[in-house]
Each structure stands twice: as structure tokens, then as C-alpha cells.
């Protein structure tokens, strides 16, 4: 499954339209190129719908949200829905500002998402429609841990059922669920949180995987989560003396670039809950 | 010629004003510093003309175009024309959206460009004023190949004659022409297309080369194309195990930083067609 | 002092709100993560004040200024003042455009800054309210050198007294002063000016240091300047064959990531003037 999902991206080279924050926009573009997809970043209302028409998938990211970008997201999202393209929402910092929360709710009302990917605080804020205080990083109290797995899986499945799309709640442990099934993914390294934008990169990657394997969306989403986590592990093993989070950032993207389907299969640690 | 053009950049350290997309803006700034120039990025209508007044060259890039950025481009472009500064247009994704195509045509009508640099699909879209579907990467069908060189050279020369500026159509083979002469450049690596923004970087580099050697604009443009391609080759030779497109991105800029005039002369593979 | 300031950042992991240019926004985010702080970038007027409420410090950077960003800066700055958070101003290119100068003056009138950090040309332009021509890099004529130290220190102290905040004028030599005391910092490498955004990174770092040690603001500012300079030195020592300014950019952030309090103490070269 994982191997096929990875190879479908390489084979079909889906063009992914990203409307995303400027902090990590370059990394999202490079990770899309790394996995075999092709990025186009266009966030003006003037051409968002037309650009998305020529693409195979859409990635909407609320980090550093602006009014004009939100307008472009709505236009592109509607067009992608019309054309049946997969659409991913990354609700960065959604609990930290009313503006972002209201934007997320408006987007979820007007656009059918294929998947929503966020950290535990973001997904919980979105589900509860509540305000949190922790910026763009997850609160420790919200994190998925070994002890509350069943409860967390039930929460993610229920949220997925309510909103009608795949939910990926990622962190040191990742849960990826639709209304009926929930997978636990245990790949990744804690040091990934010291690199800005690994979450943004994963959302971009997920849009590419969904675009390349639309008929098996949950499997594609799980594969993307495993691939990003495996890249974080491989990259960490390749770190050399004197290297820190900037080198790690590059090595993660490089690991996505170099990863074969076989390597992904061997590395992946996931199971149905 | 190449050596002198490279050394003129190092010697005069031209300040280059870039109004460019946010995907690759950091790379464009660092490649300008790498070649010996100095970047300033300013894309507000409020100060675009004044900033350009203190510079030696201007680089306008349509990737991720916004209405406000277009306004700044028009103001900066007119001022640069007034002052006789070289101006480069990089029509990123011009075939993928009416907004970008119309912006490009408006810019070409209101501003005298010294050079336009794009991939084969972008240059053909600009010349034909037609819509394409391939996002920001070139379609294989549009690429310059060994078999149609004479025809492609005639096309680029004719387009240059029509619009009155140097045209650089770059890809696995590069054509750089004015109305009378066309050069073929064979430097570069196919892997450069797996790094976002190598085209954007080349356009920035070209603005620096043109600013440093204004009296021999075609030679300066050819030198910039050779330098970028040579950097891609040198960078590829320096790649180590475990490195992918993110490392390659850094190594390309590093190769521009380290390149001497002699090295450029030795590496360059170009000829008049 | 330095060790304690560095360790306070690691221990308290302050969340820093940055309204900053898009050229170096990713580097600023990664250097904040490197030093142990956490970044949030939010520059929309819609949520700037709310975001800053959940943070511990604010960094305002005028590089690539836009009207909407300025509005967000004013809103965030007032809120940060209300809450007693440290606020840093980085007046990038303030001498190069009336728009930026007027924005800086408006910000200085409406917001109480804890520290202003700029290169010699920027600080002199701000103090003199004059126009300069050199883009975003410092003019050689403005630089602090060994011969005019006493005069430069008096200038920086007097400017600090006039505006009521710490002034850090950085370059090959750095002066960091309040109204009464001025420190000279001699860390750093000239090659840092070949990497875009080392100044922006330092301003972000300074906001983190001020947020973590608010009761000793001048010492915190000096520590941040020493840490950035020391990172530049350590990074340069780690450079390998074939590496240039892009590798150096990564190695500087990596050095911030790896730096211990002891290492900072050993490396730091500063003294009261």
C-alpha cells in the first residue's frame, strides 16, 4: 500500500496548488518536488480558481493568514470541489486567533475537504471551536500519548464523521482516521518540532499523495504521514557533527527526495486501532 | 568575455531591486549576495520607485503575482527606465493564468525590458499570448532540443526583434538572443528542475550581470546563463551521499559564491547559432 | 551573565511574535527554534493584537514593508506595550525610503520599544532622520571602527537616551547601549554580511533574550549580540570545502542550536566602554 502510494506520486507527478504561509512556502515547494510532485503557489484572488483548474490537488494552510489569501482559498477551494480535486486544510494556529478560527470554520462550511491535518492543539481547537494560547506549536496537554490512545482515536473518528473528511492529528504519535477506521503512525522524531514547517510540509505531501491515489484516500493520507515521519528518522540518522535544526530541515527534504517505496515500507510503523 | 562579466559584478557590487515571489525570495537574495551583488526586496507601491532609484538594476518576477505587487512593478519599472537601469522580466507561470498573462503584457507595454528570461513554455506562451496548462514548469513539448535548434533560434530572435529586448529561453538547452544574434548554452543539469526557484535565481543573477556590464548586454546575459548552469554542474559534483534537492539548492548558491572568472571560462559551453 | 541569559531562553521557551519581511522569515523562525524559543509569524491586522497577547515578546522588522503589515505592527505593538512585553524594532533599509522612515518614526512615536537593532547606516539614518542611498547594507562610511569608538559610543548612548530604549548598532563591531552604559561586542565574522538576514535573525534572537530575562534588558541584548556573533564564528570554523554563503546560512542557525551557555561565555568578547 505505502509503496504503491509513493510510486503513484512519482509516476503521475501531480501538480499541487498551495495557498500557504510565507514562513515555510519554500520548504513546501521543495518537499513537493522532492516527493515527485510539482508545486505552484498562487494566492491572489485574481487567478486562484484558474490556477487550481490546471492542477491535481489543493493545499490550504492558515499560517500567517491574510484576508486576501482567504478569499483566494475560497475561490480555489470551490473550483477544486467542482473538479473533484482533493483538498487539504492545514489549520495552523487556529486556536490562537479568532480570525484564523473563523476562517477555518468558514472554509469548512463552504468547501468539502478531503483531509484536515493539524497538530493535536489545532485539531482539538477546531473540534471544540475553542481558543487556545500556545501559538503554532502543540500544547503538551493536548498531545496523543500511549495512555489515552483509545479515547483519542474515538475523538478523531467522531470528528471525522462529523465533518465528513479524513482527520490527521499529528505529533509524536499520529492518528489518521475517517469515520470508521483510525490508524496510529509511530514514525518521526521529536527533533522535527525544532524545524519550522514540518507540519506544513506534511500537509503539502498529503495533498500530493491524495492527488496521486484518489481512490484510496485514507491509505494515501496514512502513507504521507509515514513518509514524512520516516524522512525525519532517516534525516536524523544522517546528521553530522556540528549540525543542528537548519541542517535537519534540509536533510528531511533530502530524505523525501531519496526515499524509495521499499524503504518506506520497511520504515513505516503504523497499525489500525 | 565571461570572466570579465563575472568580475564586473564582483567589482561593482551592483544593488539589485527585486520584486519577486515569496517562494524563492530568500534564494534570490542569497544568490545575489553569492555572485557579489547586493539585493533589496521591496514590493510596496509606496516605496518601489524610490528604492529602485538607489539601485543599479531591477528584477520583476511574476511568480505568485498580487495586484499590489504589480502596481509596485509598474512604478519601479518606469523609474528604472527613466534612470536607464537594466530591467529583467521573469514571467513565471505566465501561461497558466490570465491574470499573469495580462500583467506580463501590461508590463511589456509600459516598461522597456532589457531582458526577458523564462522557461520554454513561458516564453512561447508570452510570444503566442496563449494559455497553457503546465503550472510553472515547462512542458516537454515546448522544450528546446537538439533536433529543432535552428527553428527555435529563429523563433527566439524573431520574438526578441518584435519586443525589442533580449530573450533568454532556458531549460535543458538555453537560447539567449537579441534581434540579430542567438547563443546556445549547454551548461546545467536536469536535476536543477527539482529545486524550486533556479529560474528565479537566474533572473536575479542576470539583472546583476546586466547592471555590471550594461555596454555589452547580450554577452552579460549569456554569461549569467553560463554561470548558473556551471553552478548547477559544480554543485552536482559536490553532492554527497544522503543529499537530495534541498542540499542541491544550497550547493548551487554555494557554487555561485565560490566561482571564479577562470572557472566560469573553463566550464562554459556556449556558441553562436 | 551570558550563560544565564542563554539558559533562560531555553528554560522559558518564550513565544515570540514576529511581523517581519518575507525574505528572511523562515530563517528568523528557525533561529528562534534554534535558541530554544518558539516563533509565531502573524502580520494581518485582523489578528496581530490577539496573537501577541498569547506571546512573550514582539519583533517588528521593516524589511519589505507593506501598508497592511504596518497596521498590524501598530496594533501588535500597542497590545505588547499594554501587557509589558518586550518589543524590538529592526528598521531594515530605513534610510533608503521615505515610506520606511516615516513608518519607523510613527512606530517610535506610538510604541515604546525595548530595543532597536540595526546596522550603522540604519541607526544613523534613524537618529538623523535622513535619507541614505545604500539599500539594506551598511555604508562603509557609517561603520563603527576602532578609531572612532568613543565618539560612536557617545552617539549611541545619546540616541538611546533621546528615544528611551536600548540601541544596538551592529556590524563588524557592535555597540549596545542604554542611556548610561555602552558595551562593545567584537564577535562575528565579516562573511556574515554575505548571508541575507543575519541582522533579521539577530533581532528575533534579541526579542527572545529580552523576553526570557526582562529584568536585565541591557545584559540580555548584549548576550543576544554575543550569541549571534559567536554563532557566526563557530559556523565559519565548521565550513567545509565547496561550501559558500548558503551553507554558511545553515551553519549559523545550527551553531545557535548547538550553543551551550559555557560555549557562549568562552567565545564572547565584549566590554563596557
Automatic annotation (TrEMBL), chains A, B, C:
Q: Its pathway? A: Cofactor biosynthesis; thiamine diphosphate biosynthesis; 4-methyl-5-(2-phosphoethyl)-thiazole from 5-(2-hydroxyethyl)-4-methylthiazole: step 1/1
Its EC number(s): 2.7.1.50
HAMAP family linked to this entry = Thz_kinase (MF_00228)
- A GO MF label: ATP binding
Q: What does this protein do?
A: Catalyzes the phosphorylation of the hydroxyl group of 4-methyl-5-beta-hydroxyethylthiazole (THZ).
Q: Name one GO biological process term.
A: thiamine diphosphate biosynthetic process
Q: What is this protein called?
A: Hydroxyethylthiazole kinase
From which source organism is this entry? Candidatus Eisenbergiella pullistercoris
* Sequence similarity: Belongs to the Thz kinase family.
Which residues does the record give as substrate binding sites? Answer: 41, 197
Alphabetized UniProt keyword annotations: ATP-binding, Kinase, Magnesium, Metal-binding, Nucleotide-binding, Thiamine biosynthesis, Transferase
Identify the InterPro entries for this entry. Hyethyz_kinase (IPR000417), Ribokinase-like (IPR029056)
Coiled-coil positions: none
Question: Which transformation does this protein catalyse, written as a reaction?
Answer: 5-(2-hydroxyethyl)-4-methylthiazole + ATP = 4-methyl-5-(2-phosphooxyethyl)-thiazole + ADP + H(+)
Q: What Gene3D superfamilies does its record include?
A: 3.40.1190.20
Provide the residue positions that the database annotates as binding ATP: 117, 170
Gene label: thiM
Q: Which cofactor does it need?
A: Mg(2+)
The lineage's top-level taxon is: Bacteria
